[in-house]
Specification:
By secondary structure, the protein is an alpha/beta fold. The chain folds into 4 domains: about 140 residues, Rossmann fold (3-Layer(aba) Sandwich); about 110 residues, PAS domain (Beta-Lactamase, 2-Layer Sandwich), CATH 3.30.450; about 160 residues, Alpha-Beta Plaits (2-Layer Sandwich), CATH 3.30.70; about 240 residues, EAL domain (TIM Barrel). About 45% of the residues lie in helices and about 25% in strands. The strands form 5 sheets. An 8-stranded mixed β-barrel has the order 18-19-21-22-23-24-25-26. It has a 5-stranded parallel beta sheet with strand order 2-1-3-4-5, sandwiched between helices. A 5-stranded antiparallel beta sheet has the order 7-6-10-9-8, sandwiched between helices. A hairpin with a 2-residue loop joins strand 12 and strand 13. The protein is elongated. The N and C termini lie far apart (about 125 Å).
Length: about 700
């Protein structure tokens, strides 16, 4: 690339001679001549590679040219070529920054002076670049987040950075001149350090995790890379160690590992860890010919807590339950949470049925004490199922499944108890599975039928209505009572279809009786929990009444007391919507739940149904009679009618009449009958 040369000279001939001389010396040039300050300043942009300048010019001078370079902070080699410069002026020019001077009558030195000036410039630039690299390296060294320590070839620390001081707590004065051994934590054996040095000496590099000790004594993990730095002869001159504090990474990994095998809410072992421990326990039990027990624990009515008080309260309840059960079992037992409100407990080392039963009693007992959560006092119970190895199964899946079956049996037997697995439970589960499969198609196969039970006015003896009761008439199972299939239908999610069929069929039957001239005043239909929760219930009722052209007041929907209290706000909204249509409402099984009377009085009800469990012992139990009196008095005070269920004896009917009960139904008057049989029964006396 040609040398860009600027010649400051008033004599064109002298400028040409300078350029020619340099070309003869082998330099390839691109040059221009200037002689005034304005021309000079213009020629500095872009800056030339070299300036040749006469010291004395008519309108400009070499001294001015140098000063203008300083003002603009331009580093351009500047060689004076003059015929009249004296020695003192030449020295002054060199002090001002000139690279060299050449007398015009000695042009032979010009090429040498130019080359030296250019080389000095190259060296200056290289030196400045080196200095900038050093400054950059120092900034990186001091400001990097990684700790850095530099040792000499003998391993003595010669330098550390600020991050080293932050991470270790040692300042430079503490460690310079010391051996890095001062940071040792004591967690590594001599072989660890032998392998480190072997790698470093053989390859010049070692990377790995190492535990060191801070100045305050705290031991911490770091990720360290040590590199050997050779000198010009290839011998190791220094070692550089760069490290990061990985305490937070280790803690995060520890948390990730924990959550992989533990429940995030309760910190109990999760399903994965439980099955792993159960597998090991089974191997040990098989080898040692010992027994073990698996206990499946499910909280009773936990969903009600979540639905009524919210999930935060439910979560805190699960935490407190977990803590109580953990404190109740032994440290070497494994209590795990499978999910939701399901827990499982493994008892090892030859646990007998007696021991398992004892633990189950303790678990149930530890939950009886009230728990105080967000201003609520809660008492929770549990149902526990127990399976034993090897009698109830020899593998994890079988033992867990059988314990689950036993837990389900505990719930069927009233909850808050424990049951051991028996083969009959397995058979019952198979029967339930078969029933579930055939129940799903009961509506479409027209296997459901309705029976109707008359409701009688005690004062007049007249028929005031009937209650529709669903039955399942299966070709092989025969007539299946609602107690057997309604809970199953709710559990498998088909109660909505059954409920809709019952409502539509019952209303259609009432319309058919109207066409036959049999004026039955009212039809009662029971609602399930799932129907109350359904958003489509109000529309369903409206559509059925429109289809059958029935007066809305002739339909009575019955809900249970416990159903109302399960989700009071949503229940109230649904009942209000139904009541606004003109449909009547009754509370079934009243007295068996835990109603809030202040809430009850605001519900849009027409009547209360006294549960048959109180009616049954009229004449034999004074307490039940008192309860019946109280319910009748309560209903009347709220402006509601009362209807007693399960009336089977004349003395029961007489007692109810005396106490002011309005309506009755029961075997004393008629069993539930199909429509064709009911119209022939004496109790069926429709109003003309």
């Amino acid at each position: 690339m040609p040398l860009r040369l600027l010649i400051v000279e008033d004599l064109p001939h002298d400028a040409e001679l300078m350029a020619l001389r340099l070309q003869e010396d082998g330099l390839e040039l691109y040059w221009q001549r200037v002689q005034t300050e304005a021309q000079y300043l213009a020629a500095l942009n872009p800056a030339p590679d070299l300036i040749l300048c006469d010291w004395h010019l008519p309108r400009f001078s070499g001294q001015q040219a140098l000063e203008l370079l300083h003002e603009r902070n331009l580093d351009i080699p500047f060689v004076i070529v003059s015929g009249g410069i004296g020695e003192e002026a030449a020295v002054a020019a060199l002090r001002l920054g000139a690279s060299d001077y050449v007398l015009k009558d000695r042009p032979a030195r010009l090429g040498e002076a130019v080359r030296r000036a250019l080389e000095e410039k190259r060296l200056r630039v290289a030196h400045e670049q080196d200095q900038e690299q050093l400054r950059l390296a120092e900034r990186v060294f001091q400001n990097t987040a990684e700790g850095i320590k530099v040792t000499d070839a003998t391993g003595r620390i010669v330098s550390v950075n600020a991050a080293f001081e932050t991470i270790t707590g040692y300042c430079a004065a503490d460690v310079v001149g010391q051996n890095p051994k001062m940071l040792k934590s004591g967690r590594h054996d001599p072989l660890f350090y032998q392998n480190l040095w072997a790698s470093l000496l053989n390859t010049g590099l070692w990377r790995g995790e190492i535990w060191n000790r801070r100045k305050n004594g705290e031991i911490y993990p770091e990720w360290l890379a040590i590199s050997a730095v050779p000198d010009a002869q290839g011998r190791v001159a220094h070692y550089v160690g760069i490290f990061s504090d990985i305490s937070q990474i280790k803690e995060a990994q520890k948390q990730i590992d924990f959550l992989a095998y533990h429940d995030a809410l309760t910190h109990l072992p999760n399903r994965i860890l439980f099955r792993d421990r159960l597998a090991h326990a089974l191997t040990h039990a098989h080898r040692k010919a010992k027994t073990l027990a698996v206990m499946f624990i499910d909280l009773d009515r936990f969903k009600t807590v979540n639905d009524t008080l919210g999930h935060p309260v439910g979560d805190e309840l699960l935490r407190q339950v977990s803590q109580r059960m953990t404190q109740t079992v032994r440290a070497d037992d494994t209590l795990a949470r499978l999910g939701g409100d399901e827990f499982v407990l493994l008892l090892e080392d030859g646990e007998s049925a007696q021991r398992a039963a004892s633990v189950a009693r303790k678990l149930l007992g530890c939950l009886t004490r009230p728990m105080h959560i967000s201003g609520h006092e809660l008492v929770v119970s549990a149902s526990v199922g127990i399976s034993l190895y090897p009698t109830d199964g020899e593998d994890a899946d079988t033992l867990i499944r059988h314990a689950d079956r036993a837990m389900y049996e505990a719930k069927q037997r009233g909850r808050n108890n424990f049951q051991f697995f028996t083969q009959s439970l397995n058979e019952g589960a198979l029967e339930r599975l078969m029933m579930e499969n055939i129940l799903r198609g009961a509506v479409s196969r027209n296997e459901l039928v309705l029976h109707y039970q008359p409701q009688i006015d005690l004062a007049s003896g007249q028929l005031v209505g009937v209650e529709a009761l669903v039955r399942w008439q299966h070709p092989k199972l025969g007539v299946v009572s609602p107690d057997r299939f309604i809970p199953l239908a709710e559990e498998i999610g088909i109660i909505g279809d059954i409920g809709a069929w019952v409502l539509r069929t019952a209303c259609q039957q009432l319309a058919d009786w109207d066409r036959q001239g049999l004026q039955v005043p009212r039809m009662g239909v029971n609602l399930s929990v799932k129907q109350i929760d359904s958003e489509g219930l109000v529309d369903l009722v409206a559509n059925v009444l429109r289809e059958t052209a029935l007066g809305k007041h002739r339909l009575e929907l019955e809900v249970t007391e416990s159903m109302l209290m399960r989700a009071p706000k949503s229940s109230h909204a649904v009942l209000d919507a139904i009541k606004s249509m003109g449909v009547e409402l009754a509370v079934d099984d009243f007295g068996t739940g835990y109603s809030n009377l202040a809430y009850l009085k605001h519900l849009p009800l027409n009547r209360l149904k006294i549960d048959q469990s109180f009616v049954r012992d009229i004449g034999r139990d004074g307490n039940d009679e008192s309860i019946v009196r109280a319910i009748i008095a309560l209903a009347h005070s709220l402006g509601l009618e009362t209807i007693a269920e399960g009336v089977e004896e004349v003395q029961q009917a007489e007692f109810l009449r005396r106490e002011g009960c309005n309506l009755v139904q029961g075997y004393l008057y008629s069993r539930p009958l199909p429509a064709a049989q009911l119209i022939l029964h004496p109790a069926f006396q429709p109003c003309p």
